[in-house]
UniProtKB/TrEMBL annotation:
<feature type="domain" description="Tyr recombinase">
    <location>
        <begin position="200"/>
        <end position="378"/>
    </location>
</feature>
<dbReference type="InterPro" id="IPR038488">
    <property type="entry name" value="Integrase_DNA-bd_sf"/>
</dbReference>
<dbReference type="Pfam" id="PF22022">
    <property type="entry name" value="Phage_int_M"/>
</dbReference>
<dbReference type="Pfam" id="PF13356">
    <property type="entry name" value="Arm-DNA-bind_3"/>
</dbReference>
<dbReference type="InterPro" id="IPR011010">
    <property type="entry name" value="DNA_brk_join_enz"/>
</dbReference>
<dbReference type="InterPro" id="IPR050808">
    <property type="entry name" value="Phage_Integrase"/>
</dbReference>
<dbReference type="GO" id="GO:0015074">
    <property type="term" value="P:DNA integration"/>
</dbReference>
<keyword id="KW-0238">DNA-binding</keyword>
<comment type="similarity">
    <text>Belongs to the 'phage' integrase family.</text>
</comment>
<dbReference type="GO" id="GO:0006310">
    <property type="term" value="P:DNA recombination"/>
</dbReference>
<dbReference type="InterPro" id="IPR002104">
    <property type="entry name" value="Integrase_catalytic"/>
</dbReference>
<dbReference type="InterPro" id="IPR025166">
    <property type="entry name" value="Integrase_DNA_bind_dom"/>
</dbReference>
<dbReference type="InterPro" id="IPR013762">
    <property type="entry name" value="Integrase-like_cat_sf"/>
</dbReference>
<protein>
    <submittedName>
        <fullName>Putative prophage CPS-53 integrase</fullName>
    </submittedName>
</protein>
<dbReference type="GO" id="GO:0003677">
    <property type="term" value="F:DNA binding"/>
</dbReference>
<dbReference type="InterPro" id="IPR010998">
    <property type="entry name" value="Integrase_recombinase_N"/>
</dbReference>
<dbReference type="Pfam" id="PF00589">
    <property type="entry name" value="Phage_integrase"/>
</dbReference>
């Protein structure tokens, strides 16, 4: 722990060096004798640091006070570096596009998953701020925004251009709501960008071919954890990332439920997956092998990380299915197609697929919607798959009516 006497006694060396105080505060001493206060901290799992001024302009007591203020921001879930960036922009005027955009991001990021939040701000920093970030948000016209989007289109990232267009519209509307812009110019660009060609995930949806796939999975000779992932995938038809990140603490086998936390879901709301008897059998078979760890499907290299995102697709390739025939995400299309053909309530199917809910607040409170029906549907689906795997001539019938 530093004192003023110790600080004054610090002499320059051949290389820059640091002397710690406490709680992340330290002093850097340069080769010329200059002394800079620094504060190091972790936020969202990343090591960061900020300047707290120079000594003796900023004394020890003042540096500690600033450190304590920064620690309070972190405790409240706010990254001090974001505040610092916003303050710099504020000096140039709180009407700049970048200032308003960062304020908007800070206000709404807690409603999103960590990954979605990070992707959003990264896209803005990379694709938008360098071109219109310093401009007064009320002065930005549609052609200027279109020029930003055209740069992405020219690089072949049309889908990103559409996403950025959407986010910029939200930022402009936030500026209107907070009295810093008169209108949203992004609405003038409707139809200005070519439409994105929807690329559907390869999937097998013909019952006879599904039966062949299931029999191939049952005969897979690879790693046991991979076999269990392949067997569980069609029974729960969650997104591949949700499957491989499944944790043992999320499962209640007595209730026959898997509750995926909001932060893992694409739309940031809790998702309940009713477990059929067949799904529980797969999970119970896997438990003696990986149940003492965190993940149901850990990496082959370390149990502290989930299996690779390429594992399931790689197994499908080894089974002889090309990327144009079947991918891990294809189990969702398979279930959606057949369940709709069987006449199940479309809303129950959509809820089970955890497709986007236009009203985010409604989605957050309706994760258990249609749950009794979804439980019946998931068991019926598992029984149907069993019949296909056995080679039975299973006819899709209307089980909802």
């Amino acid at each position: 722990m530093l004192t003023d006497v110790k600080i004054k006694a610090l002499k320059p060396k051949d290389k820059l060096y640091a002397v710690s105080d406490e709680k992340g505060l330290y002093l850097e001493v340069s080769t010329t004798g200059g002394k800079w206060w620094r504060f190091k901290y972790r936020f969202d799992g990343k090591q960061k640091r900020l300047s707290v001024g120079t000594y003796p302009d900023v004394g020890l007591k003042q540096a500690r006070e600033q450190r304590d203020q920064l620690r309070k921001q972190i405790a409240n879930g706010v990254d001090p570096s974001d505040i610092r960036k916003a303050e710099k922009l504020s000096n140039a005027g709180q009407l700049s596009f970048e200032f308003v955009a960062r304020e908007w991001h800070q206000k709404f990021k807690h409603r999103w998953s960590e990954k979605y939040s990070l992707n959003t701000i990264n896209r803005l920093e990379r694709e938008v701020f360098p071109f219109i970030g310093s401009k007064n948000i009320n002065d930005i016209k549609a052609p200027e925004l279109l020029a930003v989007l055209r740069r992405m289109e020219a690089r072949g990232i049309l889908e990103t251009a559409h996403r950025v267009h959407q986010k910029c519209g939200q930022i402009f509307r936030y500026a209107v709501a907070t009295g810093r812009a008169e209108r949203d110019p992004s609405t003038d660009l409707k139809g200005a960008l070519p439409s994105v060609k929807v690329k559907h995930h390869a999937s097998i949806i013909e019952p006879q071919q599904i039966g062949g796939l299931l029999r191939a999975i049952n005969g897979y000779s690879g790693a046991f954890v991979t076999i269990c992932a392949l067997r569980l995938a069609p029974l729960v038809f969650v997104r591949p990332g949700e499957l491989r990140h499944a944790e043992w603490t999320e499962f209640d086998l007595e209730k026959a439920e898997w509750r995926i936390p909001a932060e893992k879901m694409k739309m940031a709301s809790v998702h309940i997956v009713p477990l059929s008897k067949q799904a529980i059998t797969v999970i119970e078979t896997l438990k003696p092998l990986t149940g003492s760890g965190k993940y149901l499907f850990p990496s082959i290299r370390t149990i502290t990380r989930p299996m690779s995102e390429n594992t399931v697709n790689g197994a499908l390739r080894r089974l002889g299915y090309t990327g144009d025939e079947m991918v891990g995400h294809g189990f969702r299309s398979m279930a959606s197609t057949i369940l709709n053909e069987q006449g199940w309530n479309r809303d129950a199917i959509e809820r089970q697929l955890a497709h986007s809910e236009r009203d985010g607040v409604r989605a957050a409170y309706n994760y258990a919607e249609y749950l009794p029906e979804r439980k019946r549907m998931m068991q019926s689906w598992a029984d149907y798959l069993d019949g296909l795997a056995a080679g039975a001539d299973v006819i899709a019938i209307n089980k909802y009516k």
